[in-house]
Amino acid sequence: MLKTSRRAARRHLAVVTLAAAAIALSACAPTDEADTDSGSDSADSSESSEAPAADECTPDTMETVTDGTLTIATDDPAYEPWFVDNDPTNGEGYESAVAYAIAEQLGYTAEQVAWVKVPFNKVVQPGPKEFDFDVNQVSITEARRKAVDFSSGYYDVVQAVITTKGSSIDGATGLADLADAKLGAQVGTTSYTAITDQIQPSEEPAVFDTNDQAVQSLKNGQIDGIVVDLPTAYFMTAVQLDDGVIVGQLPLPDGEPEQFGAVLAKDSPLTDCVSQAVDTLREDGVLDQIGQEWLAQQGAPELS
Predict the structure, then answer these.
(1) Beta partners for 229?
(2) Is the domain of 280 the same as that of 133?
(3) Which residues lie within the region annotated Disordered (predicted)?
């Protein structure tokens, strides 16, 4: 059974829905500065095309950091709607629920899962890892594949533009309406790449170390809007901004979705097993179920 609290889910969604009804979501996240590829790979994001045998992906046979334990990493703080109350161990929030579902698929109980806190930049750097896999809204890109492994994608990402009511871009319906906007995004993210590659405004984008800094800049009127993944956009406009609105979602580049994948050490013996688990969760509709539980709302308009 997935370690989620439906009561907590309903309470969380009720709060944000009151603040921003009829807006919607999908998803995106950070990438390293050298990474200019905001596109995605297919659902099968592991490098091996041959699925491992079932008996190769069990707690008794998998080469984990700690025998008999699946160690999962994420950043601190861990934000909603991906995690709830900054506590990945409670199974609440999209990525926490996905992580426990992967663990269950691999034969681990909730008690056999251990969480560690690892900064995003350390996760995507080359070198040994103190975790078996990481979930932290990490977009799958070829540039990152040079340093780490990825599982199959567990979430298809959509970027969105948010602003405040009455701003110069409130009511924009197309990318052309954003041509003169001063937009901002977190440094090293695919959101920033979306500004430079898709929107291509005349003004240089503002860069922030954190999304919280971007929100404050928007409140101060220093920028016209922020580009983030759609679930984060929903959270920002519903919770962090008193008068926040989602302008719209950006079209998928080349019709291919950007994806979040679990991050593993380069050439990890666990990559194929984790990918197989994610593929099964997608095929069985479990990922959709988790998405409905923690993310789904009616759609934001697409900016043409």
Answers:
(1) 159
(2) yes
(3) 29-62
